[in-house]
Design brief:
Number of strands: 0
Number of helices: 21
Distance between the termini: 21 Å
Protein name: Helix-turn-helix domain-containing protein
Organism: Streptomyces radiopugnans
InterPro entries: Cro/C1-type_HTH, Lambda_DNA-bd_dom_sf, TPR-like_helical_dom_sf
Helix content: over 70%
Largest sheet: none
Order of helices and strands: HHHHHHHHHHHHHHHHHHHHH
Structural class: mainly alpha
GO molecular function, one term: DNA binding
Radius of gyration: 22 Å
Shape: globular
């Protein structure tokens, strides 16, 4: 007999399918699984693997948590809510007069603070970054109004980009969308096409979980390339162009378009060979290593698990590579190891990610999916896996 949780998942899949107006046959045509398997999962006679649930979630345009009944982020919700609430207010009140609690820092110090915020995000110090965001956004907004300059508007756009990254990693996706809107507003005032193109890259990635709408994401990537033409060719603009191709590869992978994935990865790879590792363009981490990490993710989405694991093994992180990037690569490597039957290796990769970036790893949705998969594969879970599952709230 399958576990009662799987029966609940089957019931939830059936309910969401009916809400979408689909028959079992209609849903089966939209996922890479058979009608027979779908019918047995809905009836509770077969277990639903994490990959099956993820495929159904994409087809029904919902999230995995809706189907599993698991909260998106269960660890320490009170602390997270306490950090996110002031960010929400700062994003919402950006166009109203700001009551400063004291003298605002000089422009060079505000720019340095925005850079420090980026370092915290790249270092996966999410709580620290979230705590400092509201005050910095308020001070930068005051300074941009009273003493506007390109430098200050760039710093404000950077702070909004950090707000997007922090809220995304903490699971507040509605705020992440708002933060990108504010980033676009600041980038326009800065007159910086590179910032505008980076915003389009971030914006496009919000469509990677909605494969039916992937064309919208690709249109945003195209707008980003158009913006870059205003800047002319340089190492900086090439790095942003390469990042846009990586974003397009991820979107195409979610849509199952293998040919487009190969094309965009190849173009990004060509650019990376020209630029080398670039880490100083508005805090991008573009270069051969980042091309490799995006290839890993894309091949996972295309269910090319052996190729994904080979790509993960081939990545050579450069010196000083951000902890957030290293940890994200380890999370994807763990998924590839799990899918290829390397259970102990997968658990070891997750443990390394936890050591490098505990806050990011704990809230990472792919970590939860991989842990669930490992639990399904092992009838008797080792203590390390049990502890990991408890830590992420599975």
């Amino acid at each position: 007999m399958p576990a009662s949780d799987d029966e609940h998942i089957g019931n939830r899949i059936a309910a969401q399918r009916k809400r979408a107006g689909l028959t079992q046959q209609g849903l089966a045509q939209r996922i890479p699984y058979s009608y027979s398997l779908l019918r047995h999962v809905e009836s509770g006679h077969k277990s639903a693997s994490p990959q099956f649930v993820a495929a159904v979630a994409r087809a029904l345009r919902t999230d995995v948590a809706t189907l599993t009944g698991q909260p998106a982020h269960s660890p320490r919700p009170d602390r997270v809510d306490g950090l996110v609430r002031p960010i929400r207010e700062a994003l919402d009140l950006y166009d109203l007069p700001t009551d400063s609690c004291g003298p605002v820092l000089p422009a060079p110090e505000l720019v340095a603070a925005a850079d420090a915020l980026c370092r915290d995000v790249r270092g996966a110090r999410l709580y620290q970054a979230a705590a400092g965001l509201p005050g910095l956004l308020a001070d930068l907004t005051v300074s941009c109004r009273e003493h506007p300059s390109t430098e200050l508007w760039r710093a404000l756009a950077s702070a909004y980009r950090s707000a997007h990254d922090v809220t995304t990693k903490l699971g507040s996706y509605d705020l992440a969308v708002v933060a990108l809107d504010r980033m676009g507003w600041a980038a326009e005032h800065a007159g910086d096409p590179l910032l505008g193109a980076i915003r389009q890259y971030k914006r496009a990635l919000s469509y990677r979980s909605r494969d039916a709408e992937h064309r919208i994401g690709l249109r945003m990537v195209a707008v980003g390339h158009d913006l870059l033409r205003q800047a002319g060719e340089s190492t900086e603009s090439l790095a942003v162009a390469g990042q846009l191709h990586l974003g397009a590869a991820v979107i195409a992978a979610r849509a199952g378009d293998a040919a487009a994935v190969e094309s965009h990865l190849a173009r990004a790879g060509e650019i990376a060979r020209r630029t080398g590792e670039v880490g100083a363009v508005h805090w991008l981490s573009f270069g051969p290593a980042n091309v490799g990490t995006h290839e890993v993710f894309a091949r996972l989405e295309l269910c090319q698990y052996d190729a994904a694991l080979s790509a993960a093994r081939a990545v050579r992180p450069p010196r000083g590579w951000a902890a957030s990037r290293r940890a994200a690569l380890l999370v994807d490597r763990a998924r590839a190891e799990m899918e290829t039957g390397r259970i102990e290796a997968a658990l070891a990769s997750l443990a390394q990610a936890r050591t490098l970036a505990p806050q990011q790893t704990r809230f990472h949705p792919r970590v939860r999916e991989t842990v669930r998969g490992l639990l399904n594969l092992r009838r008797r879970s080792p203590d390390a896996l049990t502890r990991m599952a408890a830590w992420v709230g599975v």
